[in-house]
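Instructor's aside before we start: the two examples that follow are unrelated to each other. I chose them only because their records fit on one page, so don't look for a connection. First example below.
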Amino acid sequence: MAETDTKAPFASPGLSNGAAMRRGGPPVPAWLRQSFAQTMRGVPEVETLRFGREASGDAGSTAIRDAGDLARHFNPFQGEIDAKGRVLGGTGTTTINAEVQNYRGDFSAGNHVFEPDGLRLQATVDAGRFDSYLRGDITRRKGGFNSNPPGGTVPTRLADIGLRPGDLDKITVGDVTTNGPGGLATVAAIDRAAGTIVFEAISGGARADYAGNFHLTFTRFAFAPLAAPTAIEEGVTQEVQLSRPLPPGIVPGCFARGVKRGPQPSNDPRSIAQACVASISADRRTVRFDRPLRFGAPILAAEGDGLLFLPGLWSGQLWSKRSYGAQRQGLSVQGIRIEASFPALPNYRGDTAYTRTDVDAVLDANSGMPWGFWPALWLYTWRPGPKGIGQRIVPQARNGWAEVDILELFTRLGQGPSVWSGNLHDQPYSRVRALAAQGGDEAQNGGAWRASAPDKKLLSANASTLLLPRPMADGERHSFGIVWTRGQVVHYMDDHPICVSDWPLQVDYPHQLGLNLACGSLAGFNPVALFFPQTQADAQKQSMTIHSVQSWEA
């Protein structure tokens, strides 16, 4: 779609139509060869925030030197929070993708660390341990893997998942595996004499005699079904009865996620509260939490539902108090530039690791990689509830919300810190990669970048990735930005254009800027991709430092 609002200073002769470009139409506009600064020339700069204990706050900028400064400009959550600190809308304590960590209700010093020239968002483990302690195989050459529905009893033979009898000494009932069907399963029973394990699906659905080409990873995550007739009442239940004892690795300070199972277990273990385990009874069947549970969905013993327990991993995030977006009334363009740095990581670009041997080879070859590392710079809003809490509903929007990812850095088996990702969500779009059309200009515009998949994949409805010759996580500062108009979004890295997306947004309410360090996700196929810390060291290494935020608008 061509640019529709000619108030944008760079709108003449207009941004090219992405579809036309894919048909061999007009070339990338000349201004896409320009730096971010050249593109923004003539657009008023309305905000400059500099982070760090020694940050300067001159007439044109604001210094964010401590938690008090943070609180004047940011919130610890996106959305609305009531007087008791409960999140009523927005992203909540685990954001929106069953993240492994929680976010605190304040700018805690351990997770928001002020350095001389930046603010480091840091992950900390307060309780429990990350330990992916055993791997197996699910292959076509063997008898298959059974992941039962709640209460199912079909066993899986050790030999069929690449394990030996002695491996049973390491495994505890309640331990959780990631598996080939794309979800999580729990060890429901062990028969040492027969050499079998009974698995029950937690997410990803039940499977019978599943044969593929995947690894099976045992973790110290733990699952326990609710004891009948228990039901968790949202915002009220604080003590829970379980149908079997918790494994010994679950201790006070660990987190819990609510898991809906039913006949076909869902893919999204969830929590919208910060509840931690406060105490565990002597028989390990009764757990009391430090606050009432809120999972955003009914958790019922009658349906086989239960709680997934995770180590107490906390992290840091910021959500702006001011709003952003070219779609706001009276505006036609929004520019945002964020300077950030990440710890130096191995040059891992992703691998097709499936079997136990493949996975172990990847982990061994990338020693020092904090698996599950997921920093994100993004703009988000949400559809409020029926009582009209928060921003107003916009009926013409497809799902009432839209998301602009300025940068996401995923560290999992399929991709790593050498892969740039900038997604647009919920409103359909088409995209072209600016650098692909620049020919000889690539050398001066960020180096020899190349797509991590054919261009038709780059132009998919809701995803974009670029494989870089070196990691973004290299210990050095990099800038990430967007220019957002009413019809298009252009992404930048280190002030060079990456891609332009035709995106006629169908919502007109504001977005908040989120800067957060997530530590992996247990939704969808993320568990089988090992998108969570594999060791305690993986969890404690995760950090992102924010140096500055600038914005322009007109």
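Example two begins here.
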Amino acid sequence: MSRILPSKRLLYLLIILLAIGFGLNLFLQAASFRMDVLHALKWVGAYPWLYCTGSLFIFFILLLSSVIVPNAYVGPAVVSALFVLLGIASDQKLATRGEPLFPWDLMLLKNAEGMSKITSGMISPFAIGTAVLLVAGLVLVIIKLPKNRIRLSLRVTLAGISVGLSTWFLVLVTGQSPVVAAMSYQNIFWNQKVNYTQNGFVYAFAGNLRQSLMDKPEGYSREAVEAVAAKYSALPEAPVQAAPGEQPNILFMMNEAFFDPTRLPGYTLSEDPLKFIHGVAGQTPSGYLLSPEFGGNTANVEFEALTGLSMYFLGDGTIPYQQRIVKMSSLPSIVSILKDRGYEALALHPFDETFYNRNRVYPVLGFDRFTSEKDLPDADRLTPEGYVSDKAAVQEAVRQLQEASGPAFLHLVTMQNHFPFVKGVNGPNTITVQGGLPEQKDELETYVQDTKLTDEAMAYLQQELLKIKRPTIAVFWGDHLPALSAGIYTAAGWDQEPRLKHETKLLVLANFEIGKEPLGTLSPAFLGPAVFRLSGQTLPAFYKLLEQVRAEIPGLSKKVLIGPGDTGTLKELTPEQQALLADYRLVEYDLLEGEKYAESLMF
């Protein structure tokens, strides 16, 4: 039987909720500093207004939960637990990926079953234990607390106040109002780690709720886009590889977490895991891909490769698939370009089709058909616990290319090498690794074994290409380096070498002559023009722009810029390079956030 809270107890409840709000905010900020409470307290002293107002926001959320649930204690208990889980999740993401939790990360909750498999081994036992204790404590509190409630009229009043003030806070923060600016709030969207540590978790998380992908360039207009389009449309066609006689199939193979482990110094391998890739590298165009990501965010690498748009211009931590493209009706891409030329457009990803909203994004990019894990019930896995193997994925890709009635573009995203690297998941390890800490041995040997299996799948692909009657070209690259234990990269000295932490293997195979000119290191945004050149395809104006940028800055990422001819890291940009990037930025903004004038002018 519930009872109405007397005024005195209601006052106590409000004081308790206020204290909890301040405590939760301190906890969330400690999570932004990897659970360093002392550092969080120093932040409170440096930014008292951000701390106090952020804590009041949490207080009003707690108050709202207290009055909308009949039992005045249940709502705050549940909401408090959710805030604690947010802090734990942000801390764990910082530990594994080096970035905090973003609002759009919560969209992955709909993939809870798949996420549990992907994140197995990534979350520390301490974090799991804390979460279990939290849930158990929450259940106990709900059972034991008295069934007190607040008078209906007062509940309505308090709910109105809570909703009004919480909404006002969000409007001020997302609109970057002068009110919050006076409290030293600055939305540092280009560096989200600093955004969270400087502004606090509450302000940074709230500010990201209405985060656009990029700022509007100065001078953006239809006339400005038309001028850029005219400039690059007028460029003459540069020499291309001789066309193979008929439109070739094009296969993109983006391999999960693949890089060359033999590049890591300080380790001795009992055999070369990449015998085929190393052996063929000098006989065909090859090099390295400068990934915009490390350890995750595969969709952002895919975004660059398919659209030719660069993550370099976008806010730090953004995921275009989830934040923007899923809301669009169309976006020019290599898919749409080739479809206009008579190609069938196929996507293949042997995993959950809803991850990164691929099932909704792929049609926007122009794909005709998407084959996901649910369509491949009999696909081979090296063990029941493993993902679909790279060889099985290649077999399915080849089958679809062979069955195509005309030229086909097929984009394959593999899963075999996804974290965690648990011994035995992809069969027994056959390569030993000497060096490093003993506790890292199984992890390293498992990852090296995975790359060996990928190498074997690539050797198989080369054989199968020769059996396809239509000319076919395959572009293979790793999406990002794996999330190996941080100490492995630290021991290798790569923490101070961002280029090495972002270079993955890039290789082009074909069943017709494409030469063997090295590709050097290039960003995924430049893969489209590169494969067009190799396959004898003419370039649309947008690809001519990309070729001009690639000639000056073949490696374009937030972490490192690589200069012309792969001569090394750029310390500063020349006026000519800045002008090229200004054109590139203008077109990218137009396509993602603007009026899409370039869609009809440059594609």
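The mean pLDDT is 89.
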